[in-house]
Amino acid sequence: MHVRNWILFMSIVITTIGCDTASTIDPPDESFFLKFYGEEGNQKGVDAVLNADGTITLYGSTEARDVTGKKVKQLYLVNIQQNGQLVWQRIIDTGKNTTAKDIELTTDGRLVIVGDVENTPTERDIIIMTLSLDGSEISRALIAYDTVGQPTDETANSVTQTNDGFIVVGSTSNLELKPIKGTTNDIRDALHVRFNDDLTIYPSTWRRAHGPGDFDAGVQIIQISPTQFYFFSYTNTQTGDFNYSILGLGVDGETNSPDSFLPGIPGSNEILSSVIISPVQSGEGYVLTGITNTTSSTATDLFIVKLRKSLTFGATDYQFQKSFSVNLGTLKNVRTSAFALASSGFLILTNENSTGVQKFYLTKITNDGTLAWASPIIYGGEKDSSIGSVLELPDGSIGMVGTFSVGEDGETKMVFIKVNKEGKFSK
After folding, report:
1. Strand runs (DSSP E) across 144-267, as ranges?
2. Spatial contact of 398 and 362, defined as CB atoms under 8 Å apart
3. 11: alpha, beta or left? (left if phi > 0; alpha if psi -120 to 50)
4. Beta pairing, strands 346-352 & 336-340
5. Whole domain around residue 257: which residue ranges?
């Protein structure tokens, strides 16, 4: 089952890079590889972190049977060496179908994860957990903001460590959490919830929703100081035209910027999915990545905004804002992932579906947003693949986690791909 996909995968990669031969390709378990993780059923890869001991922890979901024998989607953690060798794997059972969303490594060497717990197909709660580096649970909490007599839907996108705990960011259908009531067409707001380090919840002012549009979804919060936070989301601004959205929050979680700052292209939809801090070597600030398409088309392009370190929530915040005239096709998953390189520049990973089969699409940009690679590298097989995230390993190689469909029945597996610093399967 896997062999057939591996052969096709290698034919795609070698066609892309052109110059590799059998004599120049190192053994897959040393310099590069594509490896699947998971056993019976479907697995999905969403995110990964590089630990202080050099191992990599992959995060996603897996199908497993509960105590009644019913298949349930549960959280799945896999710890591997940098050559892909499995160290350990853990399944976390929440008792319900649960979708993995984000994993982060804390400053004191723990793991923190968030996911969505499905009560019904249209009503979810958010789970946050802290774990030791061997995957053992330390603490957990559930986020549910149902109104009286009416369940509401909460989903997570990310978790961020603060000076004294964590903030989870996502979205909610509970419209009562927004300080200023939205329009009559308001259906979803950008959500943030703050926790102490032991996952006890902060006062109610930090259980808040924001957003200027009828549909708003939070993507990331970055703490700037003990009293200042930047809240990154996307919004349709009540017109059907989606834009990125940046808002300032104070120590109590309330808005302290004049208005939301809305980068985007008039007449196009820009959907934000990744926010990272740009370090000194790449020009201090923030890199926001997502996709853009015109409101009359489903064909998509990368859309990247780089902002300065200190924001005024206006036009002077831009270092650059650009799309790249690449046709990613009609995407089934609009996720993007960005990573700041140790030297300079950024890796950008997204999906691409220009041929009708969704694949991984990896490129690199310079500090000023110029494409550093003349051609992106595309990875995939004969069936749909879906990206999770990208990271740079200590030796400069590139690691990518995601999901591949394999076999005649389309079973999905968590996949980790390791390539060299140019995105190729060679030294």
Report:
1. 154-161, 165-172, 189-196, 208-210, 216-225, 228-235, 243-249
2. yes
3. alpha
4. antiparallel
5. 42-331+345-352
**Residue 271 near residue 288 (C-beta atoms within 8 A):** no
181 domain residue, yes or no: yes
Q: Are 233 and 247 in contact (CB under 8 A)?
A: yes
Please give the tally of structural domains in the chain. Answer: 1
Instruction: Look at residue 324 and tell me if it is in a domain.
Output: yes
- CATH classification of the domain holding 296: 2.120.10
Q: Is residue 406, in this structure, part of any structural domain at all?
A: no
Q: How far is CA 61 from the centre of its chain?
A: 14
Is residue 180 a contact partner of residue 208, using CB atoms and an 8 Å limit? no
The whole-angstrom separation of Cα 362 and Cα 339 is: 11
Q: How many CB atoms lie within 10 A of CB 310?
A: 11
CA distances from 81 to 55, 96, 340, 387, 416 (A): 5, 31, 22, 20, 11
Q: CA distances (Å), 117 to each of 45, 102, 285, 299, in order?
A: 17, 14, 34, 32
Q: pTM of the entire structure?
A: 0.91
* b/e per residue 128-143 (b: at least 16 CB within 10 A): bbbbeeebeeeeebeb
Give the pLDDT of the chain (427 residues) as one tens digit per residue.
Answer: 333 334 334 434 433 333 332 233 344 456 789 999 998 889 999 999 999 999 999 999 998 776 677 888 999 999 999 999 999 999 998 989 999 999 999 999 999 999 999 999 889 999 999 999 999 999 999 988 876 567 899 999 999 999 999 999 999 999 888 877 666 788 999 999 999 999 999 987 898 899 888 999 999 999 999 999 999 999 998 777 999 999 999 999 999 988 889 999 988 999 999 999 999 999 999 999 999 997 667 789 999 999 999 999 999 999 999 999 888 999 988 999 999 999 999 999 999 998 899 999 999 999 999 999 878 899 998 899 999 999 999 999 999 999 999 877 788 999 999 999 999 987 6
The answer as to whether 131 is a domain residue is yes
